[in-house]
Hints:
The protein contains 8 helices and 9 strands. By secondary structure, it is an alpha/beta fold. The chain has 2 domains: about 5-200 and about 235-260, NAD(P)-binding Rossmann-like Domain (Rossmann fold, 3-Layer(aba) Sandwich); about 205-235, no CATH class. β7 (about 210-215) and β8 form a beta hairpin. Nicotinamide-adenine-dinucleotide binds near residues 68 and 94. Nicotinamide-adenine-dinucleotide (NAD) binds near residues 20, 22, 66, 152 and 198.
Amino acid sequence: MNDLFNIQDKVIAITGAAGVLAGGTAKYLQEQGAYVVYLDLFQDKVDAVVAEAKAISEKCCGFACDVLSQSALEAVHDQIIETCGRVDVLINGAGGNMPGATIGPEQDVFDLKIEDYSKVLDLNLKGTLMPTMAFAKTFKQQGSGVVINFSSMSAPQALTRVLGYSNAKAGIDNFTRWMATEMALKYGDKIRVNAIAPGFFISNQNRALLTIEAGSYTERGQQVISKTPFRRFGEQEEVYGTIHYLISNAASFVSGVVVPVDGAFSAFCGV
Ligand SMILES: NC(=O)c1ccc[n+]([C@@H]2O[C@H](COP(=O)([O-])OP(=O)(O)OC[C@H]3O[C@@H](n4cnc5c(N)ncnc54)[C@H](O)[C@@H]3O)[C@@H](O)[C@H]2O)c1
């Protein structure tokens, strides 16, 4: 394999690793020879995903860990260091939305549920900040490490209805640039922080919102396709290569960027 892209034996911790995009990415990275630590909220989900991962290779383990619990994050981090001796990469994959933080088709902004809005901000934004704080202490000591965050196409432009999630993901874009700067200025050029911004992928959360049945779209699904020059939704495999690149030495001079993986959605004004 070209050494630039070699991720053999890199120790990669990934939160939300029982999820669709994050879990698929984790398994892909393990297939490329990395040692992958699967982290997710509940033990049964972790056990199920690690059982699948063991079929790829023995280079994996998993822990239940709430990304909003500092003590749980520190305990898991310490266990990884004890087991593997180091950690090379943190991927912040945990995230999600809640109905009360969005504005329904018959609602307006005054119907926003502030409690749900706060929960969505916490899960996505603090749930990215807190694992990064727990793992970056080791990156500082090692003098090396990579963080990959998950943003969204709802961050740079207003996406109707999706308020809390968009605000949180916009915060992640800013945090990515801030943390990249902080790490490089204080600890040198071997600690890099980047994000990917997936466009529209069909997931369990948005399937009913975007599709009626395979190949046919709701009105909102059709609006998304009209604003996507590729005229289709993404396939989950299409995020793997960008993450692989950002982790690898091929991206050694790349930090503080948010890479769209979106079929040119963000490049297109819609007309
Ligand atoms: N799927 C998409 O179309 C899409 C598009 C843009 C951005 N994203 C973002 O990409 C990331 C990965 O998406 P996905 O499709 O894998 O999401 P997903 O919904 O399939 O999985 C999210 C995972 O996070 C876990 N989780 C929730 N709360 C947690 C907590 N407190 N602590 C630890 N884990 C927790 C869940 O158990 C779940 O397994 C998310 O940040 C998501 O917002 C997804």
